[in-house]
Amino acid sequence: MFKKVLIANRGEIAVRVIRACHELGIRTVAIYSDADRDALHVQMADEAFCVGPAPARDSYLNVPNILSTAELLNVDAIHPGYGFLAENAHFAEICRDCKITFIGPSPEAIAKMGNKSQAREIMRRAGVPVIPGSAGPVRDEAAALATARAVGYPLIIKAAAGGGGRGMRIVHTADDVRRALAAAQTEAEAAFGDGALYVEKYLEEPRHVEVQILADGRGAIVALGERDCSVQRRHQKLLEEAPSPGVTPRLRRALFRAAVRAAEVVGYANAGTVEFLVDGGEHFYFMEMNTRVQVEHPVTETVTDVDIVKEQIRIAAGERLTIPREIEPRGHAIECRVNAEDPAREFLPSPGPITAFILPGGPGVRVDTHAFAGYTIPPYYDSLIAKVIAWGRDREEAIARMTRALREFEIGGVRTTIPFHLAVLDNAFFRRGEVYVNFVQRRIDLSAIRE
Amino acid sequence: MSDRSRLDLDEIRAIIRLATEADIAELVVEAAHVKVHVKKTAGAAPVTAPAAVSAALPGGTAAAPPGAGGHGAVSSDGARPAGEGAARYVPIVAPMVGTFYRAPKPDAPPFVNEGDVVQTGQTVCVLEAMKMFNEIPSEVAGRIVRVLAENGAPVEYGQPLFLVDPAA
After folding, report:
1. Is A28 an 8 Å CB contact of chain B?
2. How far is A412 from chain B (nearest CA, A)?
3. S-S: A89 plus which of A64, A111, A301, A433, CB 3.0-4.6 Å?
């Protein structure tokens, strides 16, 4: 097992990883930027080192400074968390060259899954269903329009190197294609340094269902269960649950088989998530594989009792998977992402000092957070300040617990997405489990949300 | 608790020592992550006896205890040194993470010593990172009044390495 792990991240996920390390008896090194001097992860880690100024590209993405810190402080392994360097194949490769274990899959697996059009092609050849669309990256308007003729409208235009909703456009006509192509290309180039796009069929009301897998790189691959992340706004997940209310046992088995196959075909080791879109006819399509721990991993942990972050560390240290191949989920779990954003004002970020912070508690409630009363949310990074996870024997109890937990949660000084979540939890369609990726847009009246 | 606060405390001690030894009334040191304001006499007459100076150092003005909210807590309320007698030293800070070396080779003399006058752009040390030696130029002209980092020590981004008196 490792003696010392550096956490190349900040916020709640850095805190989460530090907790897992300490439970495993591993010393921790936090890195931080000038803007994060008073952050909780800096206080919790055994050692902390400043790696750069506030902008992420100069600190949390500063590979030379992060690796220098790792070498100077003699760490054996780096946990990248999510975001920042987590899906950077180049970084994973440099770690390997420096003889520091990257807690995640191989650079080769990251690279294969990171390029969306390549990943799609690999999946198609492996027999995992993919959404019909362009065979490879679309270079020009003519190629995009040819795909449109072949699969029909509506279509979605995506960045080949993308993720997180950036560089995505939905188009309904040939005129839309012309307009969206240039804009998406510019956005993709700015966000990912790669303007390559691909075009595929857009499903009207699909669910976002993803499968958590764990693979030990010695042949054992386990599907830990699925999560339904259909409650999204502009492709950003806001509420996730496990199990999915729209997945039958038959569909579940098929999804698990496809997810395991996806991991197998790229020689995957460590934790990963295979994302699918599921339509009303129980057809499912591979979207992408995220080669890291997900924000929403706690819902799976809650219904399986598997500590995914500790498993990541054990796998990276060369241990065998000891969890059973088939795990029956226990009850139901929901996670609400509490962001410092104002849902009444287009989810405008609301950074600044937190004047009051009283956590919910009681049976079946878990909160993962790096915030506290007196903490100032810096404006430089993402707006996630807490994840509330509620467990119930069934979905109804989980919804009731989440509702009362969010009412207990008192956050002063900044606007949060709590009122939005309360509106979702109270929505009749949501309560019936009728959710799909455009649920928020179609069913939630954001103008009616008030503090 | 991290090792950071101990490091800072050492830096702050060095700064306070400096203020104590120098014939000045007030010293403000400002770096990216720390601001220390040392005032030797609370508006009293000029001090001549070093012993009295040490005693008059108001502990609360400068060094905060470690753990009291990190390094930000050591800064004073931003009061400007007013009038004559106020000195303002400028730190040279580490622009990157690395190992601090005062000389180009182990047996070579240091790039600079306390008391030396440096020009802007003059190499004052090297920082070793990723097996590369990076020469660090001074961003200020003046006299080196104090070397703050220890030879061979790991330094983090923004850590003060030298104090420079730009007036000298």
Report:
1. no
2. 20
3. A111
SS3 category, A440: helix
Chain A CB contacts of B69 below 8 Å: 38
Q: d(Cα A301, Cα A306) in Å, to the nearest integer?
A: 5
The pLDDT value recorded for residue A56 is 94
Residue A309 and residue A419: Cα distance in Å, rounded?
Answer: 30
Span A117-170, pLDDT tens digits: 899 899 999 999 998 888 778 888 898 999 999 888 999 998 877 666 666 888
User: For chain B, what percent of residues have pLDDT higher than 90?
Assistant: 43
Q: Contacts for B1-5 with beta carbons within 8 Å, 24 or more apart?
A: B1/A43, B1/B66, B1/B67, B2/A30, B2/A42, B2/A43, B2/A45, B2/A46, B2/A47, B2/A48, B3/A47, B3/A48, B4/A42, B4/A47, B4/A48, B4/A49, B4/A50, B4/B70, B4/B71, B4/B156, B5/B66, B5/B67, B5/B70, B5/B71
- CA A316/CA A339 separation, integer angstroms: 31
Q: One-letter amino acid identity for A244?
A: S
Is the pLDDT at B55 greater than 80? The verdict is no
ipTM surpasses 0.85? no
Do A180 and A169 meet the contact criterion of CB atoms below 8 Å apart? Answer: yes
pLDDT over 70, % of chain B: 48
Best to test chain A binding among B156, B159, B161 (most A CBs inside 10 Å): B156
Q: Which of A42, A59, A68 sits opposite B130 (nearest CB)?
A: A68
pTM as predicted: 0.80
Q: Which residues of B touch A71 (CB under 8 A)?
A: 130
Quick one: A279 exposed, middle or buried, by C-beta within 10 A (0-12, 13-18, 19+)?
A: middle
The mean pLDDT of chain B is 70
Q: Give the number of A-B residue pairs with CB atoms closer than 8 Å.
A: 69
Looking up tokens 């900044």 gives A414
The residues facing A450 across adjacent strands are none
Q: What is the 3-state secondary structure (H, E, C) of A40-79?
A: HHHHHCCEEEEEECCCHHHCCCCHHHHHHHHHHCCCCEEE
The pLDDT assigned to B36 comes to 66
> For residues B56 and B54, what is the distance between their CA atoms, to the nearest angstrom?
5
Tell me if A65 and B4 make a contact (CB, 8 A cut-off): no
> Which two structure tokens, joined as six digits, stand for B12?
């702050």
With an 8 Å Cβ cutoff, is A48 touching chain B? yes
Other CB atoms within a 10 A radius of the CB of residue A344 amount to 16
Q: Is the pLDDT of residue B16 over 80?
A: no
Contact A51 B33 (CB under 8 A): no
- CB A109, CB A266: distance < 8 Å: yes
Looking at the DSSP bridge assignments, the partners of residue B132 are B129
Q: Does B158 touch chain A (CB under 8 A)?
A: yes
**A288, two tokens:** 């992408």
Residues of chain A with pLDDT under 70: 162-167, 451
DSSP state at residue A443: H
pLDDT band at B12 (very low <50, low <70, confident <90, very high): low
Give yes or no for A64 touching B (CB within 8 A). yes
End-to-end CA distance of chain A: 48
Closest CA relative to residue A225, chosen from A303, A133, A112, A120: A303
Residue B43 has pLDDT above 60, yes or no: no
Reading the block at residue A292, the tokens are 């890291």
